[in-house]
Write a structure and sequence with these properties.
The complex is a heterotrimer.
Chain A lengths: L6 H21 L7 E6 L14 H10 L4 E2 L9 E2 L2 E6 L5 E6 L13 H14 L10 E8 L2 E6 L6 H6 L8 H6 L8 H4 L16 E7 L3 E6 L12 E6 L3 H10 L4 E2 L7 H6 L3 E16 L3 H4 L5 H10 L2 H8 L28 H10 L6 E8 L2 E2 L2 E2 H13 L3 E8 L1 H10 L4 E6 L17 H5 L9 H12 L3 H17 L3 E14 L2 E2 L15 E2 L2
Parallel strand pairs in A: 1-10, 1-11, 13-16
Antiparallel strand pairs in A: 2-3, 4-5, 5-7, 6-7, 8-9, 9-10, 11-18, 12-17, 12-18, 14-15, 19-20
Chain B lengths: L2 H29 L4 H5 L2 H4 L2 H10 L6 H13 L13 H36 L4 H15 L2 H15 L23 H7 L3 H38 L2 H8 L4 H38 L5 H10 L3 H29 L1 H5 L1
Chain C lengths: L10 H17 L1 H18 L1 H4 L31 H37 L1 H15 L3 H12 L3 H28 L2 H8 L4 H23 L1 H13 L11 H10 L5 H28 L6
Helix pairs in contact in C: 1-2, 1-12, 2-4, 2-12, 4-5, 4-7, 4-9, 4-10, 4-12, 5-7, 6-7, 7-9, 7-10, 8-9, 10-11, 10-12, 11-12
Classes of the chains: A alpha+beta, B mainly alpha, C mainly alpha.
Chain lengths: ~525, ~350, ~290
Amino acid sequence: MLVRLNSRRIMTLLMVLLTTMALSLTAAHAQDEKVLVVGSAEFVDSFDPARSYSPTPMMSLQVTYDTLVTFPADSADKFEPRIAKSWDVSEDTLTYTFHLRDDVKFSDGTPLTADDVVFSINRFKNIKGNPSFLTTTIDSVTATDPTTVVLKLNVTDPAILAKLVAWPFSILNSKVVKEQGGTDAADADKTDKAEGFFSTGSAGSGPYILESYEKESQLVLVRNPNYWGTAPYFDRVIFQNIPEAAAQKVALEAGDIDVALGVTPDQVDAINKTDGLSVYTTGAFTLYYLTMNRQKEFGGPLSDPKVELAVRYALDYDGFRKIAGPGAVTPAAMLPVGMFGAYGTDKAPKRDVEKAKALLAEAGYPDGFETTLDYPTYTQEGLNIETLAQKVVSDLAEVGITIKLVPGDIGTFIEKVRAGTVGFSVLWWQPDYIDPDNYLYFLPGRNGGTRAGWLEADAEPSLLELRDKALAEVNPDERLKLFAQVQDYWQANGPYAPYLQGSIQVGHNNNIQGVFRHPQWLLDVATLSRVE
Amino acid sequence: MPLHLYIVRRFLFAIPLVIGITLVAFIIANAVPSDPVSANLPEKSQNDPEIVAAFRREWGLDKSLPEQYFTYLGNMLQGNLGRSIKTKRPVIQDIQQFLPATIELATASIITGLILGVGMGIVSAVWRGKLVDYVTRTIALIGVSFPVFVLALLALSIFHAQLGLAAGPGRLDVRITKPAVVTGLLLVDSILAGRADILGNAIAHLVLPSLVLGVYTSGLISRITRSSMLEVLGAEYVRTARSKGLSERVVVMRHAFSNALIPVVTVIGLSFGNLLSGAVLTETIFSWPGIGRYAFQASTSQDFPAIMGISMLIAFIYVGVNFIVDILYFFLDPRIRLA
Amino acid sequence: MTSSTFSSTRASVWRERVGQAGFILRHNPLVLIGLVITIIWVLASLFASQIAPYGPTVQDIDHRLEAPSQQHPWGTDELGRDIFSRVLYGGRITIIAGIAVIVFGSLLGSFVGAISGYLGGNWDELMMRFTELFLAFPTIILAMAITAALGPDIRNAVLALVIVWWPSYARLMRGLVLSAKTNQYVDAAQSLGASGRYILFQTIVPNCLSPMLVLTTLDIGNAILTFAGLSFLGLGPEPTTAEWGRMVAVGIDFFDQWWMWLFPGLAIASLVMALNFIGDGLRDVLDPRTRK
């Protein structure tokens, strides 16, 4: 028969349990820790500044490391000193000399010196990671004394300071990173073993330290006790992974999170009506576009420039703006509205179904064709990518292009895109640094172009010449002219169809104050505080 | 038959089953994907001849099929289930991380399902043909007909979002720092850390998902309980007990129910697989960091090694659970002891 | 997976029981309710193009995420598609997929089970042990593994479900064949010198078909439920397709717009419930223990 549980034995067990609990309650002293919880859809490729290229690490690196120069807390209008208290530029703009502060300490107490800066930049360059194209104009970096760093360029680069603000130029504690297997040697791409370390801890001089990271769950930052600047308000910051916008809203309402980064345009009214909550809305540089691979092997019919143009004529730009809500605009080309040199919305493309059909017929597809479209199941700043993808399907169906959707996990999807093997994909781009220079990335011979199968070898020489001029020109008026030419080219040519520039909505508890959005680093949690 | 002999015999029966499962998994892993290299390696590594060669060597892909199978078995015995494409970690490590959350949820759900199912089953058997029987059976039928993901959404929407009665997704409130990981089971770890507040919070978070999964499991349990109770209630010894003038409660609970338990125990073993299928859906909706959610993420990112690893693990668990059920029989069914 | 423990019924007894079904139908209102709901869903999806006010994939961005109204009785989704129309069309895929799983699963299962039961002995033992192995893998997870390797679409989801579905039918068929084998007409056929293949497929199997048919029909609800689950996980039809499980999945991202997930969710639940009502009533006929 069944084992009869002796009732006396059960009581004893319960008593023991309860006593332990009671004892422990007195021991567990509830600390009055100031905790901030940010809800967002996690997207992590790596936490190594030299390898990372995704939003969650970007926000973490912003407050765990420092860069030589920076932007004001709420804009990207001018450069401000950070680790470098001042800098000089040579006559030919090829040599930058940075004078460092002498009072900066890393989180372990070690002083930050020029050697750390040299190590960090060289490591970044030699790792040849995803963002390493930012270093192509750097010839050499040297420390002339413990507080002076000399950066020599191999070509004029109007965007070099803007690049130095970006997270890959984070200054690492070279001692710690070396202990973790890091190296700045020329063969760092093969010999550097420190990547794993960066998701378990941090080695920077920023206001916070990375305490722990649990994949697809949460990222925890804690106050850096040795921070050299003004201490931030919160002791602990938690980035909680909440992939669905709807769940973020529920969590915000329940008080589980203080800030929701992925609020959708449709939720704004409901949140604003909720007691104690509001939504901060602002324009963003985030550019949504389709990529059509130029290589026939991957792109199929879409590798034909005429078909590419037909796709640009076939998209219903007004409809996309309606989905994205107020504040969303249609960009004129692969340069977001508001960026230096970018065309305004007056030059935005307009839908013309007849013209699209004519172009398809001209390309030899009078009855259209079938293809697949890859997209990640992801919500980017409140925009559900799957919704956008389905809109593309319906728009292109009207000109005879039949699309089968291929959803993918964000990490795997990005890996495929970076390998350049995807024929047709829904993508978006946030600037790595705030300068139009960043968007020349979408030209042949640059990473963006290569991923779209748009190779230097197949491009017109005039385009390559234009590209190189635009990259090197430092005179602002000349730059304006060159970027106008690039945008004109993109409107008629190229494997991209930019169709939307989103606005972003940050939902937050009213007791949270600070800067909710920065064009460069998205969110700097060190600027946030709670009104008691 | 003495207990130890019985256990040994059952154990010997389980061995061919375990070997068979590895064989089935091996067949699927080899027959289903068009190319094992592209199914098992991340996009980037597929173009790296060194990595591809190392992979082929590790799994013996250049050898004959039987040899491949033995390589596969050998790797598995060393705990090598391959490397996840998505997390880039050995699958076995991922499983170690995510399994405890599922064990916690599954246990809570089985208990909920048993209470609900056995309760309903007894009620409708005792009042057979009465209105109560009818209503209970209809409720049970509706319970099994609802897709578990719709049930989960309804529960979250009503009890968490609208009424604010139940804790939301996840295993703990976000603001609560997790106790040190000892077993990975939050209920145990929070007791070990001496934190009653964490224990309470963890239980609060368990309520909704385990209720949803429990309802899903209770349907089958209540049906079997009812039919085996009916059979037993009509049996000779129950009638004898009644005629001895024992109260109906004693008759039902002591004589009938304990004998009706045998088929119920069988059903627990059988519904365990069902429960894990349901866990995939429930964990996905409740952001429960268990192997169900891990399996879901693996399948959407075409993470073949991860999902094969999980399939196999769960098949083993299934064998294990049914092994335990067999041993329970020994205590429940006198015929086995006499055999 | 399969719902009944049915093994040793003889064909003659069977016919008598089927006769009782009419009685049950008249006296068990749940069976009647189930039948009515099932017929409504089948008709609704058959004539979706006539009944539905809109096309299943017609987008109307100006009227996106609208709550139920006169124009859109069940509201609209994130692209302004009419939920009511999509649910009507969605039934087609879900119901057909459910039936396909049952048909192919029972064909494969019956074949294996019939041979195993007929051959008996070691062959039977071996084949049944092999079949049982598949039962150790949980349905959804094994199906997930298969679709993960083949890539998600409707056909692969059905294929995956057939692979996890057939073993229980094989067991069922084996049981039926084992009991039919003892019949006199089998002895008669043997004494007349008929070949094994002839005896199995011409005399035994036809006698097992009607119970097999009824029992598999009872299982459609389960097949639909599991298919919807796969589809919910994104392993079935592609996102633009109107399909119930898929629609619920999309609805999660728009949790506040409850009509997006509630109506397709209730569609699955009501159809499966209806099928289970019928199944439960019929099971009462088949299983003497639970008969009143």
